[in-house]
Amino acid sequence: MRKPFIAANWKMNKTAEETEEFINSFLPLVKDVSGADILLAPPYTSLGVAARLLKSSHVILAAQNVFYEEKGAYTGEISPAMLKSAGCSCVIIGHSERRQYFSETDTIVNRKIKTARKNGLDVILCIGESLQEREANKTFDVLDRQLAGSLADLPLDRITVAYEPIWAIGTGKTATKEQANEAHAHIRQWMRKHKEGADAVRIQYGGSVTPDNIESLMTQPEVDGALVGGASLKPDSFAKIVTGAIKN
Ligand code: 13P
Question: Whole-structure pTM over 0.85, yes or no?
Fold first, then answer.
């Protein structure tokens, strides 16, 4: 069985001080949790304080983005080696907000994953369709295209896939557990067909996950965890999602 994996994507929220406050309240709430992997992805400016506070804990530290070059004249960008040295072992790549607001294509996502892996970082690869694409029955085509482009010439080790339907992100409109499972099963089939080791890859669901819906989502055989935005910003709410995700 794949171990549940619950990740917090804070997006552009929390200063370093707020990060410290969160972690000091959150760690005691999850100190005895061993049945799920837990990850926090704060903004870049909070990585230093988060790394210091999480050092002797079992909580994984990740960044929300990374650049595909290793160094050079790329004003404002952050390299994988910088993330490693800041204490990250993982990075989120290809979030729909990066695709939408920063024009990230599958080719760019693919380059980012390659550079991240080369530098020893694990990756959470985000994919998912828009409402328009779902309504036009294009969901599986979109997922296939994103998987093929993002994972071109890459093995599956070090990869977690996050299925995040765009219409469910920040809208309070969670996918039903059946919709999530169906999309995850499709993603797993694609990986089985094209790569080795598909059955070991964890597939997280993301989009309006809360303490109230996590247990139901996790009843699904293909749902291996969650990538949580809004409900990960409060320690008690995120801790409830972590404990609610542990499959009995
Ligand atoms: P919400 O949980 O706020 O819907 O965000 C989901 C998400 O985009 C996580 O990456």
Answer: yes
